[in-house]
Amino acid sequence: MSILKLKSIKHFFILFTFIIFSCSENNVNEEISSNEEISSQESSYVIVNNIKAKTGIIDNSAPYATKKNGVFSIIFSCGVNSLKHYFDVQITEEGKVVFIKDHSISASYYNRDYYNYRYYPDNFVNVLEFSFNNELKTFKLKLKANLYIDSSNLQSENIDTEMYLLGSYEIKPNTENFLLSDRLDYCSAKFNSNIWTAMKQYENGSFTNYDPYKIKVVFNSSTPVGIYSFTNIENSNCIKFYKFNVLTFQYDEFNVSGNVNMYYKEFHGMSQQLSTYSFFGTFNLTATNPNNPNEVINVTDGKFRTLNPYQ
After folding, report:
1. Digit-coded pLDDT (tens) for 96-134
2. Which of 37, 69, 130, 265 is the most exposed place for a label (fewest CB within 10 A)?
3. pTM exceeds cut of 0.85
4. How many CA atoms does the CB half-sphere of 175 hold within 13 Å?
5. What span, in angstroms and rounded, lies between the C-alpha atoms of 116 and 123?
6. Which ranges constitute the DSSP H helices of the chain?
7. Triad 255, 256, 262: Cα angle to 5°
8. What confidence tens digit (pLDDT) does each residue in 126-175 have?
9. Alpha-carbon distance 190 to 235, whole Å?
């Protein structure tokens, strides 16, 4: 073989090697150390189980949010290996995460959904930074969270995520319904004069937000409109109060004493031989931690609307 041919082959091999390595460096997925610092100079990205991916690869869009009732609902997407991830993050102006969902789709269109742990989410999601600019309508969010296939079970299949998001948002009109869903239900009150507003209702009549507290409204379908006094021994026509225990991973029920004014019932028909109603009411109560009598919460100016709050 001539020297000229050998040189041509050598030059071709060098060029081919350069192209291969260049493509590898530009791959959108990158395996990184779990403790690698996020640079503020980088564009938005997500890390799923130590695999890093830029956002917007699927639909070529930056993270985007709407803001209503003081809560940002942020949506974005990324591709990690053969999976497409569609994220939804709901976070308050104060940087308290209420809800995270990852809807992932494989190449064979096998879907899996992962969620943040639903109980006391502020304790189980690590928000490293959250800021927003009201004039420019932009935001920045950095957080770490484990997401679970069963949001009520910390032992269920899970993924480790880290997010660094830069995006824009638009403001939506505030509504009385603070729940982060399409349902018309609501619940709010003052806890020792501090406003508390429910943002989630995973079960009918059972209201939570990002903190450890839960209010449960309980009625019978046959209960007539009226004012009802109650303590914690009642199991219907009452309000129950709970606080999540991070040691037992259960809600501790507080001793309560109060009254509830259920002033209106809206009939929606029958469902599975059960009368379906929306219940409207107001309430006041005093809640005492049975494990710590010094922890007393005065709940005032309570109001609710809930569908079928049956025990």
Report:
1. 999 999 999 887 767 999 999 999 999 999 999 999 999
2. 37
3. no
4. 14
5. 11
6. 3-25, 121-124
7. 150
8. 999 999 999 999 999 999 999 999 999 999 999 999 999 999 999 998 87
9. 23
